[in-house]
Amino acid sequence: MAGESEFAGRVALVTGAASGIGAAAARWLDRQGIGELILIDMDRPGLDALGLGCKVQPIGGDVADPSLWKLFERELPRLDYAVLNAGIASNGDIVDLDIATWRKTMAVNLDGMFLSLRSALRAMKKQGSGSIVMTASVSGVKAAAGTAAYSASKAATIQLAKVAATEAAKYGVRVNAIAPGGVDTGIWDKAEWFAGLVEQHGSRAEALAAMAKDATPLGRFASADEVAAQIGFLLSDAAATITGTCLVSDGGVSL
Ligand code: NAD
Fold first, then answer.
1. 42 within ligand 1 shell (Cβ under 6 A)
2. What is the C-alpha separation between 29 and 105, in angstroms, rounded?
3. Cα of 11 to ligand 1 centre, how many Å?
4. Measured from the CB, is residue 19 less than 6 Å from ligand 1?
5. Does the model's pTM come out above 0.90?
6. What is the tens place of the pLDDT at every residue in 120-153?
């Protein structure tokens, strides 16, 4: 029963919680009987639409904004779990990549990851316990043309998780990363080139299926719920001896 789970009565933070993997992680934690969810996203109405059963503190804001995290630290009584997941995609060969795209990608994916990680660690250090999962990507493990800014931000996320794990172990906190391959979320719909692929294949589902078929040995993308359950495993006591790892969940893309 949910009330008897290790998550019962605990407090969890999820960033990028209004959509995709973050929303699925919030729903997963809600199903485990989490006591309170602090949800952060630029898309505040999206947070309100989640319809969760537990106590929810929705915060509309930009994870790359240091003042958001100052406020968060001031108002936070305790924090048991953190899913640091907010992120954006970007594309472009290095020769064509403009500095604005590079900086925007780094701001959200890396500054945001650093600021949220620092705040979560500060809260958890005080209480001497906690578990953090940071959403990286297979792009941080495997090089692919046209992904420089995104890939660099995700490789850095993996290394940030490892360094954090070495520092936080001494105060009882575990830090891991997850590196999904293709996941069926709204992130694809925000990319201009994806609209062309949808037109070419006749539907969104067919476009995703074609991308998966080309590059994924298991032949399909993951669902956000599947990735959320894997994040849940890393958060949980079932992963009590796992820290500083990057769980590659990519259907074999990186093999
Ligand atoms: P998504 O677009 O469905 O959700 C991302 C959420 O983050 C959105 O709700 C968005 O509003 C929020 N967000 C974006 N920038 C923000 C900011 N500056 N501050 C606060 N919130 C912000 O995408 P998703 O696929 O669920 O992506 C979640 C994470 O998973 C990202 O870090 C992404 O890089 C990573 N990822 C996704 C895939 C995939 O195929 N979908 C694969 C590997 C890794």
1. yes
2. 28
3. 22
4. yes
5. yes
6. 999 999 999 999 999 999 999 999 999 999 999 9
